[in-house]
Amino acid sequence: MSTTPEEIQQDIEATHEDIRENLDALQERLSPTNAVKRGVSNLGEKVADAKDTIMGTASDTASSVGERVSDVPAKARRNAAGNPLAVGIGAFAVGWLIGSMIPASRREREAVASVKENAGELAQPIMEGAKEVAADVRERAGEAVAAVKDQAGQAAQQVGETAKDAAGATRESMSSTS
Predict the structure, then answer these.
(1) Residue 50 in contact with residue 92, Cβ under 8 Å?
(2) DSSP state of 4
(3) Averaged pLDDT of the chain
(4) Which of 178, 112, 107, 134 is nearest to 19 (CA)?
(5) How far is CA 40 from the centre of its chain?
(6) What residues have CB less than 8 Å from 113, skipping those under 6 apart?
(7) Dist. CA 24–CA 30, nearest whole Å
(8) Buried (b) or exposed (e) across 3-35, using 16+ Cβ within 10 A?
(9) Residue 97 and residue 106: Cα distance in Å, rounded?
(10) Are the C-beta atoms of 93 and 54 separated by less than 8 Å?
(11) The overall pTM is greater than 0.70
């Protein structure tokens, strides 16, 4: 445990910095925007993995693509018999590809606009929960800081008293030797 006021102050500052870093990390983790970004990123990775699994990697040459096309019917029958998940992923990929080529209908545009309008309402419960967690963390951090300050004050008081006692003892020993 620290004994000098300087060491105690350094401990307090280090604790403050740790608390700030933890709060920043918590806010970053609980941010709805970042949660959506992580979800979109994960979805993009999964779609890319599925595309690579079904269609092969981009490094395929034209001749190997031609060979694969001729083998597709037989390979599809073999895969479908033993792996219905691959068939589902393939159907999803084909549907996604076709859907991406068709322009959005008026109803789809209206639905997207509605979702955008309601996004604030949908995110509200998440934001409230994040605010409650942040407030709780701040409260606990404040309590911890107050406890550290109290301990630092007590330690400084003890150091002061010890210094006074030592000074008094020094004066007494000097006066008794005179």
Answers:
(1) yes
(2) S
(3) 75
(4) 134
(5) 14
(6) none
(7) 10
(8) eeeeebeebbeeeeeebeeeeeeeeeebeeeee
(9) 20
(10) yes
(11) no
User: Residue 126, Cα to own-chain centre: how many angstroms?
Assistant: 14
Report, as an integer, the average pLDDT of 150-167. Answer: 80
| Direct distance between the N- and C-terminal alpha carbons of the chain, in angstroms, rounded to an integer | 40
Token reading at 87: 């068939």
Can you say how many angstroms the Cα of residue 72 is from the centroid of all Cα atoms in its chain? 42
Q: What is the dihedral of CA 44, 48, 51, 53, to 10 degrees?
A: -130
The stretch 44-63 carries a mean pLDDT of 63
Cβ atoms of residues 172 and 43 within 8 Å:
no
Structure tokens at 50: 């599925």
Q: For 76-102, how does the pLDDT look when each residue is reduced to its tens digit (9 = 90+)?
A: 666 556 667 766 777 788 887 887 777
Output the CA torsion sign for 164, 170, 174, 176.
Answer: positive
Give 105-154 pLDDT, tens digit per residue.
888 788 878 877 777 777 777 778 878 888 888 888 888 888 888 888 88
Q: What is the DSSP string of 85-122?
A: HHHHHHHHHHHHHHHHHSPPPHHHHHHHHHHHHHHHHH
